Please model this.
Amino acid sequence: MYQKEGRVWENRDMLLNVGRELRRHLKKADIKPNGSFSLHTLRKCAGKNWADVLPPHVTKELMGHSSISTTMKFYSHVDESQRARAAAAVDALIAKAGEKVTPESDVQAVLAS
Model:
């Protein structure tokens, strides 16, 4: 195709091919996105999922951000389920305050439930 057109392969051509393949797979899987759906949507989902379980500096590296402030601005939002899990973890630590256990194990047990 590119030789016929007399032009060289460019980065945007790869993006167009990947986007086309994504749309083809969505159609084959009978997935009909509501609203806009793109490769950027997948990137944002991956970034949010990483930010939910990984330290910010790790998420920064995985996302390829040059500044941690970019990562924090777009991926550090706290939702209600996270607030509830944090409150449960604090409650578990307070309940076990008199016992000789490590806080990390209690928090992990609460977060696993």
In short: Residues 11-28 form the longest helix (18 residues). The chain has a mean pLDDT of 81. The chain has seven helices and no strands.
